[in-house]
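Inputs:
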Amino acid sequence: MTVLSRVSSPFAFGSGRARFLIERNVYVYRRTYMTLVSGFFEPLFYLLAMGFGLGVLVGQVPGPDGRDISYTVFIAPALLAASAMNGAIYDSTFNVFFKLNYEKVYNAVLATPLGVGDVALGEIIWALIRGQLYAIGFMGVVLLLGLMPSAWGLLAVPASVLLGFAAAGLGMAATSFMKTWQDLDLVQLVVLPVFLFSGTFYPLSVYPEPLRTIVQFSPLYRGTDLIRRLMTGALDPVMLLDLGYLALLGMVGLAIVSRRLDKLLLK
Amino acid sequence: MTADPRYHRGPMAQAQSPESSLIHARGLTKRFGDFTAVDAIDFDVAPGEAFGFLGPNGAGKTSTMRMIGCVSPKTEGTLTVLGMEPATYGPLIRARIGVVPQEDTLDQEMTVRDNLVIYGRYFNLPRAEARRRADQLLDFVQLTERAESSVEPLSGGMKRRLTIARSLINEPSLLLLDEPTTGLDPQARHLLWDRLYRLKQRGTTLVLTTHYMDEAEQLCDRLVVMDKARIVAGGSPRELIDQYSSREVLELRFASDIVESLDGQLEQLLDGRAERVERLPDRVLVYAADGEAAAVAVHAAGLRPESSLVRRSTLEDVFLRLTGRSLIE
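Outputs:
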């Protein structure tokens, strides 16, 4: 009763009730865990095709601090970041759209003590947990193949939580504005170029000036920069900017989602 | 499910609502833009009673229920539920009420039993307790054999029963039911009424909306008739019938070519024997203390209806009298 006796505004996130929504998703995936598995292989295939295939032609490339590193070591952190982002996007877009518009899961949940803030937080945290599963799986591959020159790289997984937070927050915020399944096609239209052009397969220095600035606003670029610096041991104050930017995007997403759910479901 | 004495002592009880009311509304209004869904209604619901909102679709019943359930903010007026203001104490109120929404919102991605268990978790019940209550409630709504089934293949009646079981997982003292039996076949409705009646006997306060007058008569101790966002009358089913209708009703059906020529004629020949004559598209209703006498008078005057039937007045007649329209078009 301690949780329930606390009086809070509908936007309050600190009630602790969001965890029940995470539990709900665990219940669901307990039975359908196979659907989780596919997301693990995608970045692995990229690593094999680009790293070990294309990497033979590329050879060495300059790392974040200018020192040369192998092409496989260069792209591995980016693919770990992409794992965290993609996992978070799957759940915060398609699954949320279905639950919001067809299953009416949130209508049922809001009749209980949970509020829109709890729903937003619970769903965003669940989505980023899914991204984390892939990030952890990918980290296993990285360690197995010896693609991490620095022990700082062990912090790559916790660092990718913030990227997952930003991706899940923005993904769910965008989904809350979508009306039809066709609108959801936009998700792929945004996610694919973000994946390809955020300094994933080549350094930012390849781009001409105006593009270089624009790419720096990409959350995946920020996440990749952060994780690549950790995994290659090229620490730099710019990592604080990466962290702050990702946290900010996540908070903005969370706030938008709460407001939208309130507008859509608590008329 | 026994009445919990604590619910009177919500934080706002002393200021806002009479101690005796579970729900207290004065001038309660809900507007969506220019559209007024609920227009300054007053009502009180006492602990342990079954209270109904009777009215056609679009009368404002669901909007009222959503305000009571703390999922829709009021536009104007006073509303307290369990002695508390929904705007401030929404989570606390929702923790102690059960809601059966008009549209099924069962979780399609999990089994029948898990639907109840996870709902219990939303109310912060320990897992073991949620499981224990889930099994008890499945038994109560006669769905034990379907516990491991998914939701999708259940019949409409089963889904409704599961929704009612779900609404009881937190052992609420107040249960809100929005059109609980709409779309169900008669057998499924009777089973559902039976379960609701048992809940009422255990002391659960029921608040329901319906556009079925038989449902209102079966279940409600007291009801209000809603039409066009307003409450037009209130009382027990018996009181409403006594006040707004005659003891008996004579229903007459005439061949369509005769109906036109009857204008005024019936009223004339029934003078003194009927309180009122109502013409519907398919039949004529004669409101009379003695329906049989009215029927004899009609036949004595040489009129030959295709059929005539004397019955007791119902809430349907009350609604017709109050609004000039039938409840179900």
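Remarks. The mean pLDDT of chain A is 91. Residues 21-265 of chain A form one domain.
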